[in-house]
UniProtKB/TrEMBL annotation:
One of its GO terms (molecular function) is oxidoreductase activity, acting on the CH-OH group of donors, NAD or NADP as acceptor. This is Nucleotide sugar dehydrogenase. InterPro entries: 6-PGluconate_DH-like_C_sf, NAD(P)-bd_dom_sf, UDP-Glc/GDP-Man, UDP-Glc/GDP-Man_DH_C, UDP-Glc/GDP-Man_DH_C_sf, UDP-Glc/GDP-Man_DH_dimer, UDP-Glc/GDP-Man_DH_N, UDP_ManNAc/GlcNAc_DH. PANTHER family: UDP-N-ACETYL-D-MANNOSAMINE DEHYDROGENASE. Pfam families: UDPG_MGDP_dh, UDPG_MGDP_dh_C, UDPG_MGDP_dh_N. Coiled coil: none annotated. Residues 320-419 form the UDP-glucose/GDP-mannose dehydrogenase C-terminal domain. One of its GO terms (biological process) is polysaccharide biosynthetic process. The keyword Zinc does not apply. NCBIfam families: NDP-sugDHase. Belongs to the UDP-glucose/GDP-mannose dehydrogenase family.
Length: 430
């Protein structure tokens, strides 16, 4: 397979061209012929113009690549090595929504030929690749796995917005349905990954490894969120506590905050779902999720308390929220907990204005039915800095005071600023 790919006798197809799939497709396209497939024709049209709709990949990243972008599933028939990088969300009940994965598997199954490889990168619960995806491939193709085609799983580890830990510089875990598959997959990924390849013994091990990476981070942040709530009641600055504790060599300096996005805030529900399927109800993971999901309401309640302490009626208050994306310096608004915070504020009839230099107004309106302002107005009763965009890091107290009326209130959810009582601003941070 590797020789045929290197000689460009065979092609790689990447299915799903979002934050994960596009960087994978472009990196492979520096070495091999690649078909980039996505079900969204508008996204494909932009990619054909070397424009990333997500604003995560630069124009230069498209240069020197041998890639064809398409929204036609029939074009997948020209590929022999398939990489699946579609979203794996949850539904309104926090149950895994496998529809994108199922649709991708159906499209690939119809294009599958003897000798082909199918590798899944989407984050799933252990067993999903073999128990949920493989039967679809078999049904659609009429082929026998192992004998006619190979199956693998290689969890994505892309960190959106991170310019240091890019795809080639992150160690890649790979796995296959047999030793031959694992070795071949490792060889092919090894051509684009500088950091090295780790071959997991089974597909289930690789799936489990990925999901616990994000479960562990979710739990660590939930611990800091709970500590922040406790310390706030005690009148102690959580950031100063973390700074002091971090002087010990084995302390892990996680920080409190809103946990959103398509990974950390979603993946634990996949493991919770699978655990309950086998008769175990996880206590720690569930508790961590409950704490993190409750932080938007906690912050909203805190602001209302601060308004009331200054004899400001929340129903007559106007509040500016700065930042809506799920993390800093990206355009991705999926599962943004800032949107949850805004909804919590609106429950108190607070008039909320929103600005974000990276988010798309159209996407915000479509996803959350919220309106982004081009710029702040003035005379706000409070300002909430919710996302640590670079544009916000250099702002000073004078700027925030210029936006607010008497008794200004500043909530700094990312602990970006050092504000003292002498600054004349009521300041609070997680």
């Amino acid at each position: 397979m590797l020789n045929d790919l290197q000689q460009k006798k065979k092609q790689i197809a990447v299915v799903g061209l979002g934050y994960v799939g596009l960087p994978v497709a472009l990196e492979f396209a520096r070495q091999f012929r690649v078909i980039g497939y996505d079900i969204d024709p508008e996204r494909v049209a932009m990619l054909q113009r070397s424009e990333d709709p997500s604003q995560a990949v630069s124009l230069e990243a498209f240069h020197g690549t041998d890639i064809t972008f398409t929204a036609n599933p029939d074009d997948l028939k020209g590929a022999h090595f398939f990489v699946v990088a579609v979203p794996t969300p949850v539904d309104e009940y926090k149950v895994p929504d496998l529809k994108p994965l199922q649709r991708a598997s159906e499209a690939i199954g119809r294009a599958l030929k003897p000798g082909d490889y199918v590798i899944y990168e989407s984050t799933v619960y252990p067993g999903c690749t073999e128990d949920d995806c493989l039967p679809i491939l078999k049904k659609q193709s009429g082929l026998k796995p192992g004998r006619d085609f190979k199956l693998g799983y290689s969890p994505e580890r892309i960190n959106p917005g991170d310019k240091i830990h890019t795809l080639p510089d992150i160690l890649k875990v790979v796995s296959g349905n047999d030793e031959e598959a694992a070795q071949t997959i490792a060889e092919i990924y090894g051509k684009i990954i500088r950091a090295g390849i780790y071959i997991a013994p089974t597909i289930k091990v690789a799936e489990a490894a990925k999901v616990i990476e994000n479960v562990q981070r979710d739990l660590n942040i939930s611990l800091m969120n709970e500590l922040a709530i406790i310390f706030d009641k005690l009148g102690i600055d959580t950031q100063e506590v973390i700074r002091a504790a971090a002087t010990k060599w084995n302390f892990l300096p996680f920080t409190p905050g809103l946990v959103g996005g398509h990974c950390i805030g979603i993946d634990p529900y996949y493991l919770l779902y699978k655990a309950r399927q086998v008769g175990y109800d996880p206590q720690v993971i569930n508790s961590g999720r409950r704490i993190n999901d409750g932080m938007p309401a906690y912050v909203a309640t805190k602001l209302v308390q601060m308004l009331l302490q200054r004899e400001k009626n929340p129903r007559q208050a106007k509040v500016l929220v700065m930042g809506l994306t799920f993390k800093e310096n990206i355009a991705d608004i999926r599962n943004s907990k800032v949107a949850d915070l805004i909804r919590e504020l609106m429950k108190y009839a607070i008039n909320v204005h929103i600005v974000d230099p990276h988010a798309s107004p159209n996407e915000v309106a479509h996803e959350y039915r919220l309106t982004l302002m081009d710029k702040p107005s003035d005379q706000y009763d409070a300002v909430i800095v919710a996302v640590a965009h670079d544009e916000y890091r250099t702002l000073d107290v004078a700027y925030f005071k210029s936006l607010m009326n008497g008794s200004p209130i500043l909530l700094d959810l990312k602990a970006l600023y050092n504000v003292t009582k002498e600054d004349g601003v009521e300041y609070w941070r997680l």
